[in-house]
Design goal:
211 residues, mainly alpha, 3 domains, three-stranded antiparallel beta sheet, 10 helices, 5 strands
Length: 211
Amino acid sequence: MKKDTKKEILDGLPDQNKGETRDKLTDEEWIQAIVKDPHSCWKTPSQYFSYIRNTLRRASSRNPLKTNWKRANLKPITPTQRSSGRFHRSTKFVGMCVICRKMFAGSHLEVDHKTHSSCVSKTTAEGFMWHCLGTTTDQYQLLCKPCHKIKSNADNKGITFEESRGDKKAIVFSKRTVARQKELLTEWGYPDELNNAKSRRAAAFKHYMKE
């Protein structure tokens, strides 16, 4: 039997006996090859892309362009702000969330990308890499942590910011005991939507959208 060369080992795919190479694989087959590799720790492509997203986000959080931009957009805390009692005594710099328009300590603000990018395939992963590490600062904005979570949820689900706010509250609602959920829904005027978790969460969402 011919011994594989180093290049053949590097370029080899799950079924090397068929002489397949990475260049001949579709994007989907390539990802399947990674997931099915005997040394893989990922059971599904979704888990693999989750790993890629988390890795790139960690790298993005240390991107000098981002950290320098954030530092430049924070202001020294004023005596009036310090005496207001809203900030910890150790706070030195503050900034404004562009969504809720409230002031926060710098440590409670996060740099958000104005535009959304996904990472669910080999093709989109490359775009997500540039989104995380190759964005210019005109695409950055400061958000408080709560607003950032709501916006990210809205981007991921393709819904409005207000819908996302209601959705996040409905998620918290669904973690209450069933008895408490039924009690609240009855109080809110939804006595006919108590039968199952899906209908209770949907009713809670309706309620929060009216707030």
